[in-house]
Amino acid sequence: MASDTLLVSGGRALRPDATVVEADVLVDRGDGRIVEIGPDLMTDRDADETLDASGGIVMPGLVNAHTHAAMTLLRGYADDKPLDAWLREDIWPAEAELTAEDVRAGTELGLVEMIRSGTTTFADMYFHVPEVVAAVDEAGMRARVGHGVVTVGKDDESARADVRESLDVAREYDGAADGRVRTAVMPHSLTTVDEPLLREAVAEAHEDGIPIHTHANETRDEVDPIVEERSERPLSYADDVGLLSDADFLAHGVHVDESEIELLAERGTAVVHCPASNMKLASGIAPVQALLDAGVTVALGTDGAASNNDLDLFDELRDAAMLGKIGADDASAVPAEAAVTMATEGGAAALSLPGGRVEVGAAADLAVVDFDAPHLAPAHDPVSHLAYAVRGSDVRHTVCDGRVLMRDREVLTLDEREVVETARQRAVDLVARAE
Ligand SMILES: [Zn+2]
C-alpha cells in the first residue's frame, strides 16, 4: 500500500480496452504511478488527498504531440493564408522579434490552456528552450521539447550555430524537471534544413539516443520540389538521411503515398496528425485510416495556436474522426475509439513518454471529465462523447505524474490571471515591434 496517496473517487474509469467501468483510481504521489483501480478502494479520510470524480470519466491525460506552445502570442495575428505565405509574410517576421521572456510568457499561456483542457503531456518545437523547460517544470506537466532548426537563407556559420544549439539543448535538458522533460533534436522540415547539416544533426542525435522530430509532407508545395530534385518521395529521402528511427516522430504526414506509409510502418516512425492546422492552412487531408491500417503509430497535435487557433485537444479528437471519414470517403473510418486512442496512448507512444493508459503501474497522468453538461446528455456511449461531444472546458481535474495540476477548474501550479495578463501585454509589444 502506498503511503502518500491521491484518491480519485466516485467516477468511471476509461480502461485501455476502451471499456468504461465504475472505479476509483488510487495514485501513489511518491512515485507518480497508479497503484489500484476498482470500486470503493478506500474512504476519502484514509487518502492523503482526494479528487471527486462522481458523475465523471477518469481518462488518461491527453497528449498534444505537436505544438509550438509560445505561438499563443500570435493567436489570431494572421489568418486565411496558405502555409508558405503565412510563414514568410507574417509568422517568421514576428518570431524574429521574440525575446526569451516572450517565449516564457507565451509558453505559460499555452500550458494553462492545455491543463484547463485535460492535456498533461506535449511535444514542443520552438526557440529559447531553457524558458520552455522552466515553464514545464513550474506547470508540472510532461513534455518532449526541442529547438527548431532552419538553415535555408542563412550563412554557413549561423546555420551551423542553429544546428549546434538544437543538439546542445537536447543534451543539456534531457531528464530535467525530475525526468518529466525529455528532448529531441528538431530540424524544422525536410525543405528548410540543408542536406549536409540535416545528415550531421540526425547522426549526432541518434548516436546519443536522442530522437528527431520534424514537420514532414505537410503541403504539396513542400513535397513537389523534393520529388522533382531528387526523383524520390520525401520520406524515402528522410530514410536516406537516417531519419526514420522508431523513436523519431513526424508532424503532419498529409501527402504520403503508399510506399511512404509502408516505410513508416516498417521503421516504426510515428506520425502526429494535426487536422485543424491542415484544414486551416488548406494543407490537405492526411490518410489517417490508411496509416492506422498499416500499423503506423498515429498521435494528435494542435500545432501552434496561430494555425488552429486553440490548444484544446478535444477539438482535435473530433476533427480527426470527422476529417478521417472525409479522407477515406467512408463514415466508418477513424471511429471514436481510434480517435481517443490517438489522443492518449498513441501520443505517449509517439513521444516515448509515460502515460496514456489508466492501468495499474502506469504513470498517473489523468483527466477527469465532467459529464453533467447539457451537451453531454444523455450519455449512451461515453467513448462517443469523448470523441464527438466533450469540450476541453468539461475537464474538472487534471493530474500529471501523481500531482494535481487543476482541481475543480482551478489551475494550481501557475497563476492563471497573471499568466494571461503578462502574455497579453507581451503579445501587443511583440506585434508592435514586428510592424
Ligand atoms: Zn508545426
From TrEMBL:
Name of the protein in question: 5-methylthioadenosine/S-adenosylhomocysteine deaminase
Top enzyme category: hydrolase
Keywords from the named record: Hydrolase, Metal-binding, Zinc
Annotated function: Catalyzes the deamination of 5-methylthioadenosine and S-adenosyl-L-homocysteine into 5-methylthioinosine and S-inosyl-L-homocysteine, respectively. Is also able to deaminate adenosine.
Pfam family, one: Amidohydro_1
Regions that span the bilayer: none
Catalytic activity: S-adenosyl-L-homocysteine + H2O + H(+) = S-inosyl-L-homocysteine + NH4(+); S-methyl-5'-thioadenosine + H2O + H(+) = S-methyl-5'-thioinosine + NH4(+)
Cofactor or coenzyme needed: Zn(2+)
Binding site for Zn(2+): H66, H68, H215, D303
Family classification: Belongs to the metallo-dependent hydrolases superfamily. MTA/SAH deaminase family.
Keyword Cell membrane: no
Domain Amidohydrolase-related: 57-404
Superkingdom of source: Archaea
Co-factor note (free text): Binds 1 zinc ion per subunit.
The enzyme's E.C. designation: 3.5.4.28, 3.5.4.31
InterPro entries associated with the record: Amidohydro-rel, Deaminase_MtaD/DadD, Metal-dep_hydrolase_composite, Metal_Hydrolase, MTA/SAH_deaminase
Residues that hold substrate according to the record: E95, H188, E218, D303
Organism encoding this protein: Halobellus rarus
GO molecular function terms listed in the Swiss-Prot or TrEMBL record: 5'-methylthioadenosine deaminase activity; metal ion binding; S-adenosylhomocysteine deaminase activity
